[in-house]
């Protein structure tokens, strides 16, 4: 989005929606929004890479018995009668 074309009032509305500081000159507000855009687009990418790295740690074949788990949900089994 080209923030340069927006009015000061419109810029402040967007900043408020993002819980960002609304004071400053127009150039500062534009810069603040551009930096916010970079953070928004960067965050999910970093999170997904971290999730992919943790997959092997989270799910080890040795950790659970396939007979007791179906689609990663624990299937309750009645305890044996004594």
The helix count comes to: 2
Give the number of DSSP strands. 2
Distance between the termini: 69 Å
Low-confidence stretches: none
Oligomer status: single chain
Instruction: Give the overall form.
Output: rod-shaped
Arithmetic mean pLDDT: 75
Strand order of the largest sheet: 1-2
Q: Tell me about the largest β-sheet.
A: 2 strands, antiparallel
Notes on the protein architecture:
The structure is a single chain. By secondary structure, this protein is mostly helical. 52% of the residues lie in helices and 5% in strands. It has two helices and two strands; from the N terminus they run H-H-E-E. Helix 1 (8-17) packs parallel to helix 2 (26-58). The longest helix is centred in the middle third of the chain and has 33 residues, at 26-58.
Architecture blueprint of SSEs:
Elements: H1 8-17, H2 26-58, E1 69-70, E2 73-74
Antiparallel strand pairs: 1-2
In short:
The chain has helices spanning 8-17, 26-58; strands spanning 69-70, 73-74. It has 82 residues and is mostly helical. The protein has a two-stranded antiparallel ribbon.
Keywords:
mainly alpha; two-stranded antiparallel ribbon; 82 residues; single chain; 2 strands
């Amino acid at each position: 989005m080209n923030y340069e074309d927006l009015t000061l009032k419109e810029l402040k509305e967007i900043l408020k929606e993002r819980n960002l500081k609304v004071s400053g000159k127009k150039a500062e507000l534009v810069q603040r929004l551009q930096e916010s855009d970079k953070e928004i687009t960067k965050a999910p990418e970093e999170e997904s890479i971290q999730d992919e790295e943790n997959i092997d740690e989270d799910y080890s074949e040795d950790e659970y018995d396939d007979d007791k788990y179906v689609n990663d949900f624990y299937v309750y089994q009645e305890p044996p009668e004594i």
